[in-house]
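// run 5 | inverse folding | seed 20
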């Protein structure tokens, strides 16, 4: 590498990192400690329904802002052979993104989750499904117990923020979080972000594209009350979801289904929706087919496009 290129990179890194270092120095001098926004998990009657605290690798690091800048630069220039970095995001190569930091967080979270998983006959690495409900502000984690054919509910987490209101995302910058049937692919884990951790849901899906909807980079992520166009969780909750997704993908899952709904599409609620009418009635009726499919079969359906509507079938098993 030429000296000129090294100088340019050094200058760029210094100019970006200096404000972060100054802010950290001021915080340390004043004794102030910034903490990540967190929100308690919705407690349910299930044995595994309570969120537990954890000291993650991120919280153990002093000078968090400077370390954040360093991690972002590691991710940016990881192709130059940084040591300690696992394979980075490669949408075409199918690798699962990870950094030293995210790997430590995953390890901590899986240790934390192990007793709750074992209590309901589950293990990290099992196939999983996520269902999110805008109006109720909830995320369900479903997993398939070892040796069983049907999925079981493991945990319900409280969302800390959701972008927009009931209704699908139509275009980039409309302030709406999507609704419909999506997938977290093997290359869609986001280990380094200002939102702590992220999971790209794969918007737009085939139905979105067929309807001319556009946009990209819609995540389930940390970040407290900042939905940032997607779905936000507390730091502890996103660590657990991210760790289980990472484990599932590393144990052979091709992707993780994500079902996004405006609210729980119960028969009584949909009767009201149909009676009241409205712009999204037909769209929500089509979503209810997939909602009912999983409720009745307890298996994630294969979602195909048919005449501009999603069609749901039993997924093939290899």
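// decoded
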């Amino acid at each position: 590498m030429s000296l000129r290129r090294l100088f340019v990179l050094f200058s760029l890194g210094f100019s970006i990192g200096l404000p972060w270092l100054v802010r950290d120095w001021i915080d340390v001098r004043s004794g102030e400690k910034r903490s990540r926004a967190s929100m308690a998990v919705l407690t349910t009657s299930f044995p595994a329904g309570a969120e537990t605290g954890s000291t993650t690798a991120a919280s153990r690091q002093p000078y968090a802002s400077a370390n954040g800048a360093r991690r972002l630069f590691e991710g940016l220039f990881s192709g130059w052979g940084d040591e300690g970095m696992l394979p980075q995001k490669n949408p075409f190569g199918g690798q699962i993104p990870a950094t030293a930091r995210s790997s430590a967080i995953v390890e901590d979270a899986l240790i934390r989750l192990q007793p709750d998983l074992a209590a309901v006959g589950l293990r990290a690495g099992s196939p999983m499904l996520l269902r999110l409900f805008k109006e109720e502000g909830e995320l369900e984690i479903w997993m398939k117990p070892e040796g069983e054919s049907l999925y079981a509910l493991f945990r319900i987490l409280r969302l800390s923020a959701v972008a927009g209101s009931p209704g699908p995302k139509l275009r980039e910058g409309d302030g709406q979080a999507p609704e419909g049937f999506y997938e977290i692919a093997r290359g869609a884990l986001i280990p380094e972000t200002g939102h702590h951790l992220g999971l790209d849901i794969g918007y737009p899906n085939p139905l979105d594209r067929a309807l001319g909807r556009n946009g990209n980079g819609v995540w389930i992520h940390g970040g407290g009350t900042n939905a940032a166009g997607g779905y936000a969780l507390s730091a502890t909750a996103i660590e657990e979801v991210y760790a289980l997704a990472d484990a599932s993908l590393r144990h052979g899952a091709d992707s993780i289904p994500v079902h996004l709904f405006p609210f729980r599409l119960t028969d009584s609620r949909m009767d009201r929706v149909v009676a009241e009418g409205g712009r999204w009635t037909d769209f929500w009726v089509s979503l209810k087919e997939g909602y009912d499919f999983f409720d009745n079969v307890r298996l994630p359906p294969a979602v195909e496009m048919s005449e501009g509507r999603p069609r749901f079938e039993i997924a093939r098993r290899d």
